[in-house]
Amino acid sequence: MAEVSAEARIEAPAEKVWGRLTDFSSYGEWNATHTSFPRGGPAELELAATYEENMKLMGFPAEVMWTVDGLEEGRLLATRGKGPMGVNLAMRYSLTPEGDATTMRIDGEFTGAAVSLMGGKLKDSATAALQESLRKLGGLVTS
C-alpha cells in the first residue's frame, strides 16, 4: 500500500474552493494527474455516483473507474477507484473553512500487487502531483 497526502492553505473561502473542486469540466486546469473524463464527470455529484477518468501516474496512462463514497457539501469529497493491473485507489479531498481562507487536504491511497513493486516511486510521484495540484487550484481560486 502507498499512502500520500498534501495540505495547503488557500486564500479563498471554502465555497469558492469547493466550487472549483466539484467543477469536473475544469479538472485539467489544476489536477496534475488528470488527462480527461471520457464520458464527463458524474452526472449528479452524489453518493455512489460513478465516472471514468483518464490519468497519468508516474508518466504512464491509467484509466480509473471512480465511485463517490463520501460527500459532505462544501467540506468533503471521497472517492474509491479501480485502475489498471488490479490497483485500487482512494482519494479524499477535505476542506476546512478558516474565515476567508480554506485549508484543503488531499489524502490518497493505492493498493494492489503492482503497488508493492513501485511503492516508493509511486508515493514520491503522487505526493509531488498532489502538491502541484493544490498550488494550481489555489492560484485559480485566488486570482
TrEMBL record:
- Classify the source by domain of life: Bacteria
Please give the InterPro entries that the UniProt record associates with this protein.
Answer: Polyketide_cyclase/dehydratase, START-like_dom_sf
This chain belongs to the protein called: Polyketide cyclase
Which organism was this protein described from?
Streptomyces griseus subsp. griseus (strain JCM 4626 / CBS 651.72 / NBRC 13350 / KCC S-0626 / ISP 5235)
